[in-house]
From TrEMBL:
Stretch forming the signal peptide: none
GO molecular-function terms, A-Z: acyltransferase activity, transferring groups other than amino-acyl groups
Alphabetical list of InterPro entries matching this protein: Acyl_CoA_acyltransferase, GNAT_dom, YpeA/RimI_acetyltransf
PANTHER family recorded: ACETYLTRANSFERASE (PTHR43420)
CDD domains for this protein: NAT_SF (cd04301)
Name used for this protein in its record: N-acetyltransferase domain-containing protein
Superkingdom assignment: Bacteria
Lineage: Bacteria, Bacillati, Actinomycetota, Actinomycetes, Kitasatosporales
Keywords in alphabetical order: Acyltransferase, Transferase
Source organism (scientific name): Streptacidiphilus pinicola
N-acetyltransferase domain span: 12-178, 181-329
Pfam family, one: Acetyltransf_1
Length: 329
């Protein structure tokens, strides 16, 4: 959530985000990105995907601030797939830079506390509930707003980029496919294998819940997902899936971006260099396919040493984000 001051907004109207609002929503995101430089380049098709997410209720779990026909603030929530030990609603939102300092962000975050409760009780009755949001480290006004509302800084994440994919790939040392392993491109028939790896790979990561078949189908069927740029590693003999690199695409003035949404290695494949070799393979394929750059996000304290892996493949840290968490009950 981007910054705001604690004054009551006036002259604005408030209503849930609807499918017909995506053009205005996209304009708002573009205005925020100019100031925040957060590489948020969602298309209208990406925004429409939110309405089909099985863990999102846009009718009751979203709110936008409007100045006439101009969307000037937004907020929406996504439920987790499990409550173990508690349930967290992820929040995403922002305020048009021209409208900051008018209490828009405060109003949206305050609304979210009330809106989340009934949605939570429908999914996980009686379970503890928390809200999780985030902001860029150094965004003083945002950090102050979260602190005022009782949020605590919970975890830090890095946005990492490869600015010149072709040059970076050309400079990479050889990373051959590990012995006994083969790489295969993602297909619908391999979706279940990829989900198996995802859930095994991330079960020991901070604040991660298992993905469901429904949620996975929504991800791999999304407008930005790129099956041809996503790959799996398999044991050549047993056929067991060992690792995944799942990719999406966005475009900006910097060119086509190969966004690495997930890199994961199942326990059976760890400490064999599979993830490094698979991601290097994906980056080479991406450069050959005409991508100009690559980006990803990573837990700064990942137990698998992911930050170092990405740095060795040419990624550099661009921003650090902090997860802001508020326990509601």
């Amino acid at each position: 959530m981007t910054a705001d001051r604690a004054t009551e907004p006036s002259g604005l109207s408030w209503r849930p985000i609807e499918r017909g609002h995506v053009a205005a929503w996209k304009l708002l995101l573009d205005a925020i990105e100019v100031v925040e430089q957060d590489d948020e380049h969602s298309t209208e098709a990406d925004l429409l995907d939110r309405f089909d997410d099985p863990y999102v209720d846009m009718a009751r779990g979203s709110l936008a601030a409007w100045d006439g026909e101009r969307m000037v603030g937004y907020h929406w929530m996504k439920a987790r797939t499990a409550a173990d030990p508690g349930h967290e609603f992820w929040q995403l939102g922002g305020v048009d830079p021209e409208y900051r300092g008018r209490g828009v962000g405060l109003r949206l975050l305050t609304w979210a506390e009330q809106a989340a409760r009934p949605l939570h009780e429908e999914r996980f009755p009686g379970a503890p509930l928390a809200l999780v949001d985030g902001c860029c480290v150094g965004s003083t006004a945002s950090e102050q707003l979260f602190a005022r509302l009782g949020y605590e800084q919970a975890r830090w994440y890095r946005s990492m980029v490869v600015d010149d994919l072709a040059a970076t790939v050309a400079a990479l040392p050889p990373l051959p496919v590990p012995d006994g392993v083969e790489f295969r491109v993602f297909t619908e028939e391999r979706a279940a294998d990829a989900l198996t790896v995802r859930n095994d790979a991330f079960r020991d990561h901070y604040d991660m819940a298992p993905q469901t078949p429904q949620g996975w189908a929504h991800f791999t069927g999304g407008a930005s997902f790129r099956a041809g740029s996503s790959h799996l590693a398999y044991d050549r003999v047993s056929g067991e899936p060992l690792a995944i690199v799942m990719c999406e695409e966005s475009s900006s003035e910097a060119g086509r971006d190969l966004y690495v949404a997930l890199v994961g290695t199942a326990r059976a494949g760890r400490r064999r260099g599979i993830a490094s070799a698979l991601l290097a393979h994906v980056l080479r394929e991406g450069a050959a396919a005409g991508y100009d750059r690559s980006s990803l996000g990573v837990d700064a304290d990942s137990p698998t040493g992911a930050v170092g892996l990405y740095e060795r493949l040419g990624y550099r840290a661009k921003q650090t984000w902090v997860a802001q968490r508020k326990q509601l009950g």
